[in-house]
Amino acid sequence: QVQLVESGGGLVQPGGSLRLSCAASGFTLDYYAIGWFRQAPGKEREGVSCFSSSDGSTYYADSVKGRFTISRDNAKNTVYLQMNSLKPEDTAVYYCAAGAQRYSDYQCDPSYWGQGTQVTVSS
Q1: What confidence tens digit (pLDDT) does each residue in 50-90 have?
Q2: Cα(53)–Cα(115) distance, rounded to whole angstroms?
Q3: What is the DSSP string of 19-50?
Q4: Judging by beta carbons within 10 Å of its beta carbon (0-12, 13-18, 19+), is residue 42 exposed, middle or buried?
Q5: pLDDT (tens digit, 9 = 90+) per residue, 6-61?
Q6: Residue 64, Cβ density class (10 Å: 0-12 exposed, 13-18 middle, ≥19 buried)
Q7: Where are the beta strands (DSSP E) in 1-123?
Q8: In 3D, which of 57, 37, 58, 40 has the Cα closest to residue 48?
Q9: Smallest Cα–Cα separation from 39: which of 108, 119, 121, 109?
């Protein structure tokens, strides 16, 4: 059974940091592009970051460039999203996803989704 399970969300003050984790089971991340999406209340889901192990292509949304970093630990079959200098506008449910990567803009085109983890940035 294919599963992606996120963890690491929570409440953090503006300027703070969080690290999200996404543990995969039932398949090997090596063969997929893996990424993070987020959805804020009343807004559409948007791609945050995507990484392809086949050629190292990496995508970051303009709004998170220089603040967020995606990484993976193949031995643990886990992907991470390190989020620094968090802003209130980063508040959203964050979803881990695995699938293909679009050639046009390197965003992920997911086949599998996690259940989401809430990130709230507030003082």
Answers
A1: 998 778 889 999 999 999 999 999 899 999 999 999 999 99
A2: 23
A3: EEEEEEESS-GGGSEEEEEEE-TTS--EEEEE
A4: exposed
A5: 999 999 999 999 999 999 999 888 889 999 999 999 999 999 999 987 788 899 99
A6: buried
A7: 3-7, 10-12, 18-25, 33-39, 46-52, 58-60, 68-73, 78-83, 92-101, 108-113, 117-121
A8: 37
A9: 119
